[in-house]
Write a structure and sequence with these properties.
With 247 residues, the protein is of the alpha/beta class. It has helices spanning 10-18, 21-38, 55-62, 74-83, 119-129, 143-152, 156-160, 179-188, 211-214, 216-226; strands spanning 45-48, 66-71, 89-92, 106-110, 135-141, 191-199, 238-245.
Length: 247
Amino acid sequence: MKDQSFDGLAQKFDRNIYGTTKGRLRHELLCAALSEHLAPLGPQNIIELGGGTGVMADYLAAAGHQLTLTDISADILSLARQKLPHSITVRQADLFSINNLADYDVLVCHAVLEWLAKPYEALAHIATQMRPGTCLSLSFFNRDAAIFGNALYGNFDYIARDLKVKKQVRLNPQQPLSPKDVLTEVEKLGFRVEGMRGIRCFHDYLREREMATSHYQQLLELERRYHQQAPYMWLGKYFYLWLVKND
C-alpha cells in the first residue's frame, strides 16, 4: 500500500468530490464547523494539508485568513491554480515532507488520512511539529459508518474481507478509520479535543437517493440538528475533530 495521488484524475476528482450532493453537503458542514471554531480567534495563518483543488482554502481566504494550500498531486494543484486567487500560496508536497508546520496557527487536514499508507504516522508527524496552543481541524473517512452502510446494502463479503477489494479503485478511500481509535491516538499525541461531529450522518443512508437532491435543504437542516449528538454523529460518513495542541 502506498499514499494515494490523484495525478491523471484531477477533473474526475473535482466532479466526484464537489459536483455531487454528497460533496456539497460535506463542504457546507465542514465550513460551518471551521467558522464556528475560528470565529473567536480572528485572522489566522492556516496551512491546508492535502487540500485538493482548494475549495476549502478559497473559502477560508475569503473569510480573511492567510492560506497555504498543499497537495501531493501536480495535476490537482494545476487545477487549483486556475481557480484560486493569487493571495493563496500553492505548494506541491506530500505531508511527510512538510517540516515547517510550527509556522502556522491552524492546520487543516480534511479527508487525507484515509488515502495514506500510514495514517497514524502522519498524525504523529503533524503533532510533533505543532506549537502548543495551535489548532488542528481534522476529518477522516469513518470505518464504522462504512461497515454500517455496506451492511445495509448486503455487501457482507466485502465486510468479511475487512473492507478490502481485489482491485483498488483510486477514488475509493483505502484506509477508513474508527473515530474512537483516532480519539485515543490524538489524546496520546498531546491534543485536547474541543469539538467533534459527524459529517453526513443521514445523506448516505437514504433509501430514495434522489431525495438528496429534491430535499437537499431539509436534509442539510437535519444534519445540522443532529450531527453533534450521539448516536447520530458516530454514523457520519466522515468524522470531524477540532483539536488544540496541549502546552
